[in-house]
């Protein structure tokens, strides 16, 4: 594979460097796995100046309150992502030709200290922002969204479209502990990284401890769309409303794999029956096309609960859908 030259982004050589390895050149089961068979670059490497979209793993589950294992998600997601090809079949998008995309490795984490892990993740994503790189992240549990938003929204709050079975708007766990995978978006709203009136949550369902998270979110102006409303109104109508709420201002997208029904994606820590089909999930993400998306994540894939890799395959397929949205977003550089 040829090296990029000093001619800058957009040159023929650069495009060749940033193209994924084809299955016609190397079997998909061969070679060292990277996200979507893209080049692996260290963030400090000068070649990252050419990167428009960086795919990053965040191998951490220190915010998990029940079934652990999402720290192993990025590795399995990388492995299954070797099945991703170059062209979106429905949209015709060719993300690797429209933007320079690379695997930027894993964010630093600390498996023994939650506060330090959050700081390390924020520091890494701050560097991405400074370089003008739009991040597509693979978790990890859902708490990783908080330090990512802290970096990306340091200059002011952003909107968010959030696909999930749970609101993640809880206040605390176990006598006042504020940072778990059930609290990231409450902290992000409180700390001014999310504009609650531009936050839409889609797919909420499942049994509840209480409804405090729902009441708090509604009081802040969050639009919460339960799965029953999605069923009644349909994907197109709900996504049209979501687009109207976030408008053309900067917006983050967070996709928890447990938004998808466990019949399709059992490998997650907090499964809830009655979720999206994979086809509905694809359509919803495709209907984000054209929004001012500044970053996205796919979280909560837990390989120990699906060693077959089927859940990870669903996850990386959604990541490819998100990548195609990011490749066409107005704020993504190139």
TrEMBL record:
It comes from the Bacteria. One of its GO terms (biological process) is putrescine biosynthetic process from arginine, via agmatine. It is an enzyme of class 3 (hydrolase). Its cofactor is Mn(2+). It holds the Pfam family Arginase. Belongs to the arginase family. Agmatinase subfamily. This is Agmatinase.
